[in-house]
UniProtKB/TrEMBL annotation:
This is Uncharacterized protein. InterPro entries: Topless_fam (IPR027728). One of its GO terms (biological process) is regulation of DNA-templated transcription. It comes from Erythroxylum novogranatense.
């Protein structure tokens, strides 16, 4: 992994590389034209290597994904989550002493 600032450009670049299941090597360049990545970002891969989480400025997280990771994100995204129902369910929980 490398995160560098190009002296001829105001854009920062983030590089990630790896090997596919078939043994093919790849490298990705992520242009960070809108900013948001700190000088020394913290990174974590998921277990399958399909998602890369990168810490961003302002307590944010950026997710970088390969094709399989994008499919995974879309399946999670398609599951609807209603925060109001979740808070109602939590409010209805009763606490019992043992």
């Amino acid at each position: 992994m490398a995160y560098s600032a190009d002296g001829t450009s105001w854009r920062n670049r983030f590089f990630s590389c790896g090997t596919s299941k078939d043994g093919e090597s790849y490298i990705f360049e992520w242009n960070e034209s809108e900013g948001g990545l700190p000088a020394s970002p913290r990174i974590r891969f998921n277990k399958d290597g399909t998602l890369l989480a990168v810490s961003a400025n302002d307590y944010g997280i950026k997710l970088l994904a390969n094709t399989d990771g994008i499919r995974l994100l879309r399946t999670v995204e398609n599951r609807s989550y209603d925060a109001s129902r979740a808070s109602e369910a939590i409010a209805k929980l009763a606490v019992h002493d043992m």
